[in-house]
């Protein structure tokens, strides 16, 4: 084959195989984005033609396109896995309507058209359209897409069920509790969408690094191709080495693999019901040194039970009734436990005023008389003398018209996995701190049970904030503090911490909004799982950096000494990129 024919065949193959890369490089240059991997490949291959290495130029394009294809397959797989996890948006709802004659009919409509209080029907196999309360029927609910929980949960009348879950085997009649845009499925989708906008420091560093690195490499390649031949000759060899230098030095392995590692890490965590709002929070969590945990609803179930009623100037039934009515407009677990102990549904029409005071209790007007219910701080606030007792638990003191009526003792149960969660966090090198607004003796009993050496009790929201800020001042430059909470009074401290973690299943909307990470399962053990997952993702990222730079340095030295053919240069770019991408994909699996 003559050299001319070889050139023609190689040019045809080159434009067929590399035409897309040439067009992309041209478009980027027009838009001012000159120095990227496409530019490096075009310069290197065109240079190879000029020095007569036609087959090398085509082979470089072939290998690069193979690497690009495999890279896109890997990224596509990652995106599909995350999309599958997040494919929870309900398509329709079945609303029950009543005609004037009392006849019921059913209409199929978009979940966004539902209103609070509407009655809906959910058939077996259907996705629950909005957060609602079952009023009739029994079934099992598959909430794996929301929480990662493998086993369906049995539900019946009175249970709350969440949008995005699947009704397994029973016909359910339910009342709508939240509009579609505020329901759990939409909230999760919004959190995952936010994650893409919050780049980690390492991710931002790589983006900035590539913009500076690429023109520097082009300049060095120019020096390699021009300066040595001026003194020792051999223009062909040195230009060839400069082209190899360009290909080897392409930064695409770092630019692609590091964002992909964060992307895969967020997707992997989502499969376990751990929603991370961005790579920056994943990185910060990996550096956590102190983790401050709220008690009620986080370490404990937040399912309170009345264990004792101690009246002072009335009977037990009257004291319980006053406490229940005063708390009847509150969403706090204490209010629910009082209503449960009271037995009947409290008559809210008897309550004409209501005011909830964070960290203290409530003020209300019951049957036209002022009632205060809560801890000792609210008794001091209304100027009422009170007395205590030796029972371990939360005390709800009650005052009627400024006169002390007695107190109700409510206890909470520690979650089954709280102890193992604390042990695992300690094993990961974290210092565990418990913060609570509960009484000192109650907090001490829980801390001793779980092996928590440091705790602070009887804290107002601002008190939690002060302690967290003081703790943050003691940390090293690269060390972080994480806070876990679930209530509205935890929102300020969740927002202030380096990493805020909210219990999303039972947690308040304010806590979920303020947090950086949301645990849909409400399991303390998921905190330890999230920490270890974050540490593993950062280890993967450091491996990507080490693999990419290490192999490139070795091959660059070999190329400059004349021991590296062009195909090895392509391996140092495309091959290393694929190794780093496959390594990053390990983040999709949570150990």
Structural description of this entry:
- This protein is an alpha+beta fold and 591 residues long.
- 50% of the residues lie in helices and 19% in strands.
- The protein is built from 20 helices and 22 strands.
- The strands form four sheets. The chain has a seven-stranded mixed sheet with strand order 10-22-21-20-11-18-19, sandwiched between helices.
- The longest helix has 36 residues, at 525-560.
- It is elongated.
- Sheet/helix structural class: alpha+beta
Low-confidence parts: none
For the largest beta-sheet, the strand count, sense and barrel status come to: 7 strands, mixed
Helical fraction equals: 40-55%
Quick gist of this model?
By secondary structure, the chain is an alpha+beta fold.
């Amino acid at each position: 084959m003559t050299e001319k024919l070889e050139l023609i065949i190689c040019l045809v193959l080159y434009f067929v195989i590399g035409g897309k890369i040439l067009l992309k490089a041209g478009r980027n240059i027009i838009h001012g984005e000159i120095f990227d991997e496409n530019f490096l490949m075009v310069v290197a291959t065109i240079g190879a033609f000029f020095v007569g290495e036609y087959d090398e130029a085509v082979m470089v394009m072939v290998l690069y396109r193979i690497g690009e294809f495999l890279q896109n397959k890997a990224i596509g797989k990652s995106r599909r896995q995350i999309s599958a996890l997040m494919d929870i948006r309900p398509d329709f709802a079945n609303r029950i309507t009543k005609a004037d004659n009392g006849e019921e009919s059913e209409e199929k409509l978009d979940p966004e058209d539902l209103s609070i209080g509407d009655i809906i029907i959910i058939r077996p196999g259907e996705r629950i359209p909005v957060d609602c309360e079952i009023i009739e029927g029994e079934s099992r609910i598959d909430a794996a897409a929301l929480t990662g929980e493998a086993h369906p949960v049995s539900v019946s009348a009175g249970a709350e069920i969440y949008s995005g879950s699947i009704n397994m085997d029973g016909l359910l009649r339910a009342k709508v509790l939240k509009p579609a845009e505020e329901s759990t499925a939409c909230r999760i989708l919004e959190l995952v969408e936010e994650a893409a906008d919050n780049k980690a420091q390492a991710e931002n560093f790589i983006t900035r690094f590539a913009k500076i690195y690429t023109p520097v490499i082009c300049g060095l390649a120019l020096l390699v191709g021009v300066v040595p031949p001026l003194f020792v000759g051999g223009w062909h060899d040195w230009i060839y080495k400069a082209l190899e230098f360009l290909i080897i030095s392409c930064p695409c392995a770092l630019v692609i693999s590091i964002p992909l590692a964060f992307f895969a890490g967020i997707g992997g965590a989502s499969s376990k019901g751990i929603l991370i709002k961005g790579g920056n929070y994943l990185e910060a969590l990996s550096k956590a040194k102190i983790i401050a945990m709220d008690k009620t609803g986080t370490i404990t179930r937040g399912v309170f039970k009345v264990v004792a009623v101690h009246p002072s100037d009335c009977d037990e039934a009257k004291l319980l009734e006053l406490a229940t009515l005063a708390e009847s407009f509150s969403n706090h677990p204490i209010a629910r436990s009082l209503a449960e102990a009271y037995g009947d549904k409290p008559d809210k029409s008897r309550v004409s005023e209501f005011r909830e005071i964070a960290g203290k209790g409530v003020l209300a007007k019951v049957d036209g008389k002022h009632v205060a219910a809560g801890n000792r701080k609210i008794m001091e606030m209304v100027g009422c003398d009170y007395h205590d007792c030796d029972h371990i638990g939360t005390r709800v003191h009650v005052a009627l018209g400024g006169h002390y009526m007695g107190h109700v003792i409510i206890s909470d149960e520690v979650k089954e996995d709280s102890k193992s969660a604390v042990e695992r966090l300690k094993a990961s090198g974290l210092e565990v701190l418990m913060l609570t607004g509960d009484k000192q003796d109650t907090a001490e009993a829980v801390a001793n049970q779980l092996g928590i050496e440091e705790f602070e009790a009887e804290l107002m929201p601002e008190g939690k904030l002060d302690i967290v800020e003081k703790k943050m001042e003691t940390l090293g430059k690269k060390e972080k503090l994480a806070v876990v909470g679930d209530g509205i009074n935890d929102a300020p401290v969740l927002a202030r911490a380096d990493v805020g973690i909210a219990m999303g299943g039972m947690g308040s909307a304010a806590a979920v909004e303020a947090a950086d990470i949301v645990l849909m399962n409400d399991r303390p053990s998921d905190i330890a799982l999230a920490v270890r997952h974050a540490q593993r993702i950062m280890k993967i990222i450091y491996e990507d950096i080490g693999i990419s730079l290490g192999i490139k340095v070795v091959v660059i030295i070999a190329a400059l000494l004349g021991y590296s053919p062009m195909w090895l240069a392509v391996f140092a770019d495309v091959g290393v990129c694929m190794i780093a991408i496959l390594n990053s994909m390990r983040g999709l699996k949570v150990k």
